[in-house]
Fold:
Amino acid sequence: MRWTVVLGLAAAMIAASGCKKQQEDSNVILIGHVASITGDTATFGTSADKGIKLALDEINKAGPVLGKSVDVKTEDDRSVNEEARTACEKLISRDHVCSILGEIASSRSIAMAPACQDARIPMLSPGSTNPKVTQMGDYIFRACFIDQYQGAAMAHFVVDTLKAKKYAVLYAANSDYSVGLKDFFNEAATKLGAEPTQQLSYTEKSDVDFSSQLTKIRDTNPEAIIVTGYYSEAGQIAKQARQLGIKVPLVGGDGWDSDELLKIGGDALNGCYFANHYAPDEDRPAVKEFVAAFKAKYNGEVPDAMAILGYDAMKLMVDAIKRAGSTEGPKIRDALTATKDFPGAAGNITIDKDRNAKKPIVIVGIDNSKLHFVASVNPQ
Amino acid sequence: MQNVTQFIQQLINGLSLGSIYALIAVGYTMVYGVLQLINFAHGDVFMIGAMVGLYAATGGVPPALPWWLHVVIIGGFIATFAVQWFRGRRPAATFQRILPLMAIYVISIPVLFAASFISRRLSLPAWSATIFVMGFTIATCGTLGYLIERLAYRPLRDRPRINSLITAIGISLLLEYGGQNPRVFGPTPQAYPNQVIPLLNGALVNAHGIVILKIDVLVLALTILIMVGLSFVVLKTRTGLGLRAVSYRFDTAALMGVNINSIVSFTFVLGSCLAAVAGILWGVKYTRVDPLMGLMPGFKAFIAAVFGGIGNITGAVLGAVVLGLIEVMVVGYLPGGSQYKDGVAFVILIAILLVKPSGLLGKNVVEKV
Structure:
């Protein structure tokens, strides 16, 4: 008697789980977005998502794409690599998205790329700059520059503009982005005649005390300190560096871009610089339009680089879908590969044979807790 | 010369880090001494201290508990009365037993409201603000420690010790992942505002390449003060006598008239208050706080307590300071040291358990039958 009840319950549960599969809504083009909405790099995900949603509004206002409306489903990966992969797989198998936008952080893009490659769903990263990301497969694209150029741009700035001949490096040993950027910076800087006095590492997401490393760096008297990590550590490093009496400028990469950086680092960041995808006070009409539209939608909030990258990536993806004339993965992939001179707000996007985009790099300076445009470097 | 100054600087860094570990380690060691229980939730009380301090300093204290929590608590009280009635106990007796819990609940309502009011009108920096933040956080964590002991550990006191251990892990996970819930603290790290403690910015000494930050001096001074105060309490007061009696022999102390429940509660409350102070100091020194921040410092403090001789307060402080120094030296002098610093702490734990399990200052007590 008891066994029949158990078997009956089991059968009912299996049947019920089968019924959970959602009806495919064939009037909507669904694009997935994997983002770090919460966690250590929360501003990356929330900014990108805001940029994407702004683009979505403009796209839907402009009319149907291939006769359908467009929608975006965002999954949070909590800034954890394994979760990025899970979130990606959820979007592909449960929500049946036609393509994926994401992620910003290179480590997480690398983690989720195999899922997209195996499912033959094109993945467009708005802001991952480590070269390994697009090497994961021919369905993986990016709409931003790669660290080879970023490292070279930073090196030129440090050597030519800051006139530093000796520098120290502090990087996150467990971040693909940080290690890669450090290597490219060193390569370019040593070619320009500068030399590193110290290269020390820390563990991203778990270290809060950098006084040991900074003490050693301080005693070698570098003329600049290169910090290739993400914003929450960069802010603390700046603060602790100033506390230890280090007065030279700190220079970083696009991982610094977040308003949390200024909240954590405060005045310690004055006189520091970082390479970025755009500066909010850039004097180009496309940038001004985007900033105005973003402020209008989000209560006067100033967009950071991840927001404009998300915006451009979303628009590029929809443009590719239009050019492909279909929502099938392989066709969208071919359209993305053929992208030439797409007018993005942060610059023209042309996808090269390595599925990377060649875009200008902007050097941003920090003064009085505000970001300002310093220089623009065009990739050669 | 530069090597010497660098070494001294690293020493200072290590002492500062070790002092914060010491404040947490004392809590672990006292609870173990009294109950032979490793309170894994202690590291998370440290985290709660840091988060509550942040919210108190930035006007984030809610004016009242959420309505469903009121329902749960009042429902729990009613259920307790009902269950005890069916067991044959008169309501008056039940009332006396859960009086402290009801008192905490009733008092918390106006206190929370007042604290919310004050926290929104704070203007940092000001000594009054610091006193409020410290006081409120210490009170909250002390209460939390009392509640954890009362509701989670006391019912299991007559059961095998492993039950309490598993419960401790459960409470730890509850605090960590409950804290990560967006409606509580959220998983994103938050930043402490500057100037929670006034006059604390900048360095006290900045000469010859050695920088001693004011916060480091404060942490060290506080730790020494607390050590002295604790020694006084343990050695010279009646409560301390009771504490030592319970640590020595639990059942006999009860037979000799020591109020076990009150001593155990006192231990938990005291340990949690110290953890709260450690949490605020960590937040002021390192700025970044998030719900999982108590994991690593909690482990390190536990290792420090074992290293110094678990059950021994001086041992805990000594172990913590030594552990802090070793951690900083590993990062400073071992290439790639930053990745090994957590591993080194666990290696020390294994080593001390193999070589001298009673810890540096512990005595090997032989159980005489």
Q: What stands out?
A: The interface with chain A takes residues 2, 5-6, 9-10, 13, 17, 182, 186-189, 191, 194, 202-203, 206, 209, 211, 213, 286-288, 290, 296, 328, 331-332, 336-339, 342 of chain B (CB under 8 Å).
